[in-house]
Fold this sequence. Notes:
The structure holds two protein chains of two kinds. In chain A, the strands form three sheets. A seven-stranded mixed beta sheet of chain A has the order 3-2-4-5-7-6-12, sandwiched between helices. In chain A, helix 9 links the parallel strand 10 and strand 11 (235-239). Chain A is built from 13 helices and 14 strands. By secondary structure, chain A is of the alpha/beta class. Chain A folds into two domains: 10-188, Thiamin diphosphate (ThDP)-binding fold, Pyr/PP domains (Rossmann fold, 3-Layer(aba) Sandwich), CATH 3.40.50; 201-327, Rossmann fold, CATH 3.40.50. Chain B contains ten helices and eight strands. Chain B has helices at residues 11-36, 51-60, 74-79, 84-91, 126-139, 157-169, 216-232, 260-267, 271-281, 287-310, and strands spanning 67-69, 115-118, 145-150, 173-179, 182-183, 186-187, 207-212, 237-242. In chain B, the strands form two sheets. In chain B, strands 2-1-3-4-8-7 form a six-stranded parallel beta sheet, sandwiched between helices. Chain B has a two-stranded antiparallel sheet with strand order 5-6. Chain B is globular, with a radius of gyration of 20 Å.
Amino acid sequence: MSGDAPAQVTYREALAQALREEMRRDEAVFLMGEDIGHFDGAFKVTKGMLAEFGEKRVVDTPITEAGFTGLCIGAAMAGLRPVVEIMTVNFALVAMDQIVSNASKIHYMFGGQVPVPMVIRMPGGAGHQLSAHHSHSLEAMFTHVPGLKVVVPATPEDAKGLLKTAIRDDDPVIFLESEGLYGKKGPVSGDDHLIPFGQAVVRRPGRDCTIVAHSRMVWVALAAAEQLAAQGVEAEVIDPRTFRPLDLDTLADSVRRTSRAVVVDEGWPECGIAAGVATHLYEACFDWLDAPIGRVNSADVPMPYAKNLEQAAIPQPADVVAAVLATMGRGAPR
Amino acid sequence: MSTSPPPVPGPDEMREMLRMMTLIRRFEERASEEYMAGRIGGFLHLAIGEEAAIVGTVSALRPDDPLTSTYREHGQALARGSDPRAIMAELLGRSTGICGGRGGSMHLMDRERSFYGGYGIVGGAVPLALGLAWASHYRGDDHVSVTMFGEGAANQGVVAECFNMAGLWDLPIVFLILNNQYGMGTPVERAAAVEDFYPRAAPYDIESWKVDGMDVLAVRAAISEAARLAREERRPACVELLAYRYKGHSMSDPDTVRSADEKERWKARDPLVTFERVLLGEGVVDAAAVEQMQAEVDRVVDDASEFARESPEVPVAQLADLVYAQPWNDDPRGSALVNP
């Protein structure tokens, strides 16, 4: 690709590129999940892969999330590199015992005898009136668990580079995509572009307040930063990209410069990602802070169906603007 | 590539099977003593009474066939040839333990001997065994994956999921239901709509049957046939072994639910005593040889015990060393959430 401008592709296609490239590179990589083959995937990420790689490497499963997630853990123990697609993160709850009791613990519990090199891809997030069973953001649940790595890409470039890293990683990686981002376009690098875990990226520089946001919330935060700029407030937007590991250095450096922070997270507020990140920032930057750290979360309710209620429950740019202004003593948070 | 053991063992192998059953019995008895002395913590589940099921099964497999078990798995590790010292040291939580003291009694593993571990969530290891069978199918090798679980686990939904995928994809797996008739303190008649468990696999196009789990030669023959189906015909199989554990569910179970009568009835069919009688009757062993073997086993167990007690504890500095196979920094904690 050297010399050429990077191609503009969707988040969906970026993921597909990562899968195809890694499958061509390594015979041990295979895909397993519901409707990923003949149906091309519920979100069409795996479109055309059955034709290229065949039924052994692109495996349609019965609706049996605990079973096939556990199967892939066993296959990983045997040295294969499964990439599981759980249709949405909501159904991962059915497989939680396999993920938490087995995938995350096997390397440690058995004294390091067997690694579990696997990726579990799944999209989450709300915003399509899918109501309470189909709108979860469960980053906090997975990040809670030692032994897992947790990846949350916001852009096509990150989706590709982080997925390639995840597939080559020797530990179980929870790869959380966003249903709201599959159509998002952006530049994407070529075959050898791997993005290491644990490196946050500054999405927009600013001097007045640090906004930490991941996945689709990066775009909400950037919209908020735009509105704040119109009011003379320069927010710095930082995307951690992975929660295990978390690049606290980059986050804390920013907060020490701005002295203010807001953490945006589509999950629930109690013991959530925003709460966890804010705690790290308090511990690392307490003496630099000019105001309490703000949190913007989804409302503390099961996701409602009615469009107006749903929109009220999900973090909006206006919520982020209000939280930033509150750290500056201007206006009140929601 | 090793060859499959024959369905009927020869004299040398039968002597070895008797020795292994004796070793498991004596090892478990010693573990019980170590627990009572306070040197083993946590849960300790003994397999006394289940020796025929364990040895009959493991002896029917190739040593490189992947095997998984429940938390009652000291015997499986011993039968696979794991070092009794390393197992006892694991039970005592020492650095020389087979899992470096991270797993304990319920989580033994010996990867080199294709023993893929003991697991604490009832039914939770069955999908892992299916994945080991999947890997064999994927690579086109001729391994057979065997998963031993109890009749209690057979009531877990994920086991039915695995029956379905094994039948659907013709995976080389043997589901081995070790029916010891009690899920902790609940007898099968209060936990299962139908008291036979092997028929549960049949609707998934899995050949399944039941054998006497107290008879090591019957177990050996049954698992040989099940493994043959999986290895040669690439079809899953399910075998139910009816057996009885002499002790409570774990050391913390006072075992008051089961009647003395019932226990005596089963002990009258003790797998060691009956097998020894068979071998004496057939002239495969004589009384002096049995006595000598038992004395050797006692020495092995004494040695394991002594080794474990004298082994060092795990350095606390290593607490978080093994959380990740690929840690992302040099932080000795390894598991640290944060990049320092």
